[in-house]
Amino acid sequence: MNNCSCVFLLIIALFVGLSEGFGRPCAKNTVTIQNKLASGSNLEVHCQSLNGDLGFHMVKFNDPPYNFSFGDNMFILTKWNCLLRQGPNMEYIQDFRAYEASPEGRRCG
């Protein structure tokens, strides 16, 4: 196989590999957080990733859920961390990973 054929095959392989998701957008991911703690309880939510900080949101008991949607970053592994606080003085805290993209990369149907 000559050099021109090898380069052509490499370009085709790269195009097929990189085009996944470019032709049609992938569905967005959604994180949903709802307060079902106890009547009168407030839940403070603070979610952030490398690309964004959504700020602080107060979710009251049985209020509609707090949710946010986002797409996966094509070059950096998308991760969202959320900090939840509740209690009379917001003294009970839980930090957790709300979303982590697949390390194999973006996969669309």
UniProtKB/TrEMBL annotation:
UniProt record, GO biological process: rejection of self pollen
Keyword field contains Signal: yes
Signal peptide: 1-21
Keyword annotations: Secreted, Self-incompatibility, Signal
Pfam families to which the protein is assigned, alphabetical: Self-incomp_S1
Subcellular location: Secreted
KW Signal (keyword) present: yes
Domain of life: Eukaryota
Gene Ontology cellular component list: extracellular region
Family, similarity comment: Belongs to the plant self-incompatibility (S1) protein family.
Name of the protein described by the UniProt record: S-protein homolog
